[in-house]
Amino acid sequence: MGTLNTKFVHLHVHTEYSLLDGACRIKDLVNACKERGMDALAITDHGVMYGIVEFYEACKNAGIKPIIGCEVYTAKRTRFDKAPGFDNDYGHLLLLAKNNTGYHNLIRIVSKAFTEGYYYKPRVDLDLLREYSEGVICSSACLGGDIPQLILSGDYEGAKRLAFEYLKIFGEGNYYLEIQSNGLEEQRSVNQALIKMSEETGIPLIATNDVHFINHSDARAQDILMCVQTGKKYNDTQRMRFNTDQVYLRTPEEMAEQFPVRQDALENTVKIAEMCNVEITFGRPVLPQFDIPGGLSPAEYLRKLTYEGAAFRYGETLSEEVASRLEYELSVINTMGYAEYYLIVWDFIKFAKDNGITVGPGRGSGAGSLVAYCLKITNIDSLKYNLAFERFLNPDRISMPDFDVDFSDERRKEVIDYVVQKYGEDRVAQIITFGTMAARGAVRDVGRVLDVPYADVDVVAKMIPMSPGKLTTIKGAIDLNPELRARYESDDVIKDLLDTAMQLEGMPRNASTHAAGVVLTRDPVTDYVPVHKTGDSVVTQFPMAILEKLGLLKVDFLGLRTLTVIQDAIELVRKNHGVNVDFDSMTMDDKKVYKTISDGKTLGIFQLESPGMTRFIMELQPDNLEDIIAGIALYRPGPMDQIPRYIENKKNPEKVQYLHPILEPILDVTYGCMVYQEQVMQIVRDLAGYTMGQSDLVRRAMAKKKHEVMEKERVNFVNGAAGKGVSAEIANKIFDQMIDFASYAFNKAHAACYAVVGYETAWLKTYYPVEFMAALLNSFMDRTDKIAQYIAECKLMNIKILPPDINLSYGKFTVKDGSIVFGLAAIKNVGSHVVDLITKERDEKGPFKSFGDFCERTACTEVNKRCVESFIKAGVFSSLGVKRSQLFKTFETIMEHTAAAQRNKAEGQVSLFDLFESEEPEDHGDYDNYPDIPEFSKEDMLSMEKDMLGIYLSGHPLEGYSDVLGKLSNLKTTDLIADTEEDLEGMDKSFSSGVKDGMSVLIGGILSSIKKKVTKSNAMMAFGSLEDLYGTCELLIFPKIYEKFTGLLYPENIVIIKGRLSIREDDTPKILPDEIYNIQDYILKMNHPAAAETAPPNETIITVTSETAKRILAFVKYFSGRNPVKVIDQETGNCVYSGYMNASEEVMKELETITGL
């Protein structure tokens, strides 16, 4: 773009990527710029370049010239000076890229501001600007700039000297003094001084508006955004604020009105815009250089490794199918320039496997590559499972292909370290990701700022549906939800809340580091993209999608907890049984394994352990890996609708019907149901003659619901199908089915990889259950809720859990004689280093003979009193024959004596006893002078055990009530356990167990903690924890309920709670009690004789489903009385219970709560 037609260009603009400060959405900003008659625009976010590529593309698409810049922070002294109370003061400076050299220099300036100059803010200094000034235009910035600040402090001459310094750094024509018109008095005086300085020095002026929002009417929303950033209320008079509403995207005419006598300052913005010409290159792969032995080219070396691997996988003689597929894939890989990419991935996976680091079988569409299978990048045969290579790579694909690789989460860093060491520290970086203000989050944020009552905000926020995979906007929720729309239209406070939230909805809220993404570059990362620093990690300022567009190599190094479980279990099997488990040699068709899965024994099995998935799998009754693959693909929102048909067709294959015979070989593996993206691709190829690449483009269009593209493809599909003898009517029906399905279709390659890991964990649970459960417990030592869940599973599996023992336990859970020994490192206040010292001493010198022996042998180590006290409470010394109460009374004295004896010995001192040595050396480790006191009560020991281990291990206070609680409660705490990162992708995790926000609950348990809090209105409320036999859940007890039931709210009280469930997307589920009862009072209340006297004499007949009948049968057992009751199973018509119960009004209401009638 040459000469511009505008009279003014905005050169100082803050987009949404000036996080929680700028309120200009890039797309809206560019559109507004065009509408207001300007054909160039700059982006100058605070200290970062997060949004420049998005901005660049938006401008190009709109016919606007993009100008790339940044408003950097300047250090008071040098960027390396970081003295508290002095160097946290910083200034501003505006930098614009004049050309591509300037663009790359700007990247280096902004990057070094983070990596070298970060102190409160990323800061630059004069030396850095001198080094990278070429191709960069600079201006003095806003009131926060160094020159305006010197002027405001009265140092005009100092300001002028600094201006000359900048002029010297950037050169004639590349440095400007910046004037603004924002209504602030300080700005007027600065403008006068800058105009004077311009006249005295010849440094030209530019006029800017420091744009922070697009329209004048957006000022309040931007102010609220600042409050979100600072955590302040909107009405707080002491908070930081702009004190002006003028920093919006003014038109050229409005800017001319603001500077009637300085038109040159406006004209100079156009001159600068015409000078700035940056071109960003997309799409061309930029891969790291891979060192290849023997003078081979990347393509030659890849071919060599591929055929060596193929011989390993298939034998020396390859079938025609394998050979032709490999040749096809190698041709595409080499043509598209990705041979080095495969070699790079092959290399670091080989490193991992060579070093005993477990690697997953694959993830995502990469598992469709047979070359990857032969290279052992993946471990699933894409031919056997009909996985499409084109889903991963085809000539029509624009973005880089993407191998995501799973490693043992405990050793993932070793692989990254290898890559850093191989390619160079400056050529590897992690990848940024942005958290946004989603609909509910925006409502909550704005509600806090505007001080709207929490209860109102919570109700409104929860009216916005949270559908996995679907983005529900606030406006969409208002349109869809009549109740929300009514609140919006009738309540001014709610209307203002939602209107303001809509203005901020979707804006970036924070920047963080992608959990797994790493970018590898041929040259230093900062030759391509800006970086920032988070702790010790260097992180790109561009997110993953942008990096892919730029052609950079991105790899997801994912840490998968389950792989660590598998690795640990295999090691335990080898150690305990002498068996080397090799999953590579298994065929995955073991009937016993599928029986384990089909019987619902899925707890701990990868992808299959959530309650909802377990129910589905039990109904599905899988007997092969294809069923597991399909199950993983189906059990998600959307495809779930196909589950009944899938199960029915599996059970009755003769009922499967196909719209056309060509569909049968494509859909027979899924019993006539469309389940996978790959099936859509194959249908358009086989029925309509599409190429491989074309089929993937159609899949993408359908998945993204590009209606125009789909209707065009409908014509192509119908015409192509006609050539195969398919009628237009049938072709249209098939196309409609594909459109309905494709938006939620799952990648079969991804599901297949997950199914393999699921099978492996199921195999371990089937054949080596003790080792598997021990490994599982070790993996979740940081989560007592999961530990409690898995220990309960061990009890169901008849696996004995031995308590922690000073002479048996190690740091982790271990296996001994078919039992699992509790790990010492799981005990509170005990560090792994201390455990290592203790177990090393025991392994080298034998078991500890007594408590005194333990103290004597660990006296000079880091084993302190706090650690020993925790051991005593946890029962670690119980096997030494001393009561816990005795040890608790004396352990400090014994430790002090043994420590003193060790010191005396070291200093060469002797005691009176040493002068009369006996012929037989005395074991000073023995100590038999324990007080004769009773042992702690069982309740006290359980309480201490719970405090130290996080769970009850040797018993449970609720054991006497287990029967009644199991039959009365409609909720278990395990239903509320947050799913791990390894549960189903895309699943709304709050609903995997069937629980819902607002549902009525009845649950019994022991109050494990109660924390009282005084509210703003000076009322008392409480936060509590309730523990049942399976785990713990949180309670939120509001003032009225607290006041009513305060006498029951104390730790270790066993209660029954009736209430509601509160599930927020950003918080742990909580129970909000409405009524609280002591458990015994509750049972008496339900069986009160007086209530029975008033019961109606007529027979009560209850007709329910089979499942509900089971719950009622459990209920009536505890509330027997004189009223005749019959329970009828509505599915069979059979009477499943005929007896007598207490049919009082209270009992019947309770029955409604429990059964949901």
Short description:
The chain has 1157 residues and is an alpha/beta fold. It has seven domains: 26-275, Metal-dependent hydrolases (TIM Barrel, Alpha-Beta Barrel); 293-433 and 513-561, no CATH class; 438-506, Arc Repressor Mutant, subunit A; 562-583 and 597-759, no CATH class; 768-949, no CATH class; 959-1080, Nucleic acid-binding proteins (OB fold (Dihydrolipoamide Acetyltransferase, E2P), Beta Barrel); 1089-1155, no CATH class.
Give the helix tally.
45
Structural class: alpha/beta
Globally, the shape reads globular
Share in β-strands: 5-15%
Highest CATH level, the class of the largest domain: Alpha Beta
The CATH architecture designation of the largest domain is: Alpha-Beta Barrel
What's the CATH H-level homologous superfamily of the largest domain?
A: Metal-dependent hydrolases
Instruction: Give me the Rg, rounded.
Output: 35 Å
CATH third-level topology of the largest domain: TIM Barrel
Q: Which segments are poorly predicted (pLDDT under 50) over 5 or more consecutive residues? A: 910-925, 980-992, 1088-1097
Measured distance between first and last alpha carbons: 71 Å
Oligomer: single chain
